[in-house]
Amino acid sequence: SQKIEQNSEALNIQEGKTATLTCNYTNYSPAYLQWYRQDPGRGPVFLLLIRENEKEKRKERLKVTFDTTLKQSLFHITASQPADSATYLCALENSNYQLIWGAGTKLIIKP
Amino acid sequence: SAVISQKPSRDICQRGTSLTIQCQVDSQVTMMFWYRQQPGQSLTLIATANQGSEATYESGFVIDKFPISRPNLTFSTLTVSNMSPEDSSIYLCSVDEGQLETQYFGPGTRLLVL
Known about the structure:
The complex is a heterodimer.
Chain A: E1 3-6, E2 11-14, E3 19-26, E4 32-38, E5 45-51, E6 56-59, E7 62-67, E8 72-77, E9 86-93, E10 99-101, E11 105-110
Parallel strand pairs in A: 2-11
Antiparallel strand pairs in A: 1-3, 3-8, 4-5, 4-9, 6-7, 7-8, 9-10, 9-11
Chain B: E1 4-7, E2 10-13, E3 19-25, E4 31-37, E5 43-50, E6 56-57, E7 68-72, E8 75-80, E9 89-96, E10 103-105, E11 109-113
Parallel strand pairs in B: 2-11
Antiparallel strand pairs in B: 1-3, 3-8, 4-5, 4-9, 5-6, 7-8, 9-10, 9-11
């Protein structure tokens, strides 16, 4: 079955630096992969979607890469700010066309 | 993007009772989804609710425990029946943009069962 792995340990980054989060998956190669942000007590909020034929996608300070050979996506936040502190989830479509989710990585940006 | 509200936002319930969670969307949507998220865990899909038909439940979830209603294209309810402390979790409803590519979530209902 499809599995998604995200670093369960919190990531502490100094303000202004680039934060990089990793999402690894096994088995089935998805047609696309998504990244969401979740703040405490709130539902996830969609950030970016990247398709299998796209190597990289950007949105303002966010950048996502998708390596189908490594079965990995990297999520970068450049010029990080304390307001970027949140849990970031990756999600992908499995072979049954269902969206499955990683457990998320908590990002802490220190001023 | 769809705006979704949920009621209640949180509740504390006694073992053996039932709670019905409401999900309201500001636009008509075909598919609505109900998820459970336990602390530090990933989102787990409970069921998909389509208007005019029975909900489709994922492995490990049954209609008797989690009955779902979908009376129209903007509203759905999830009932957590005969609750036990193991049902303590955050319950989220979501909708997609029609092709399951982007999902929009409600704020969630935080449930604590004593």
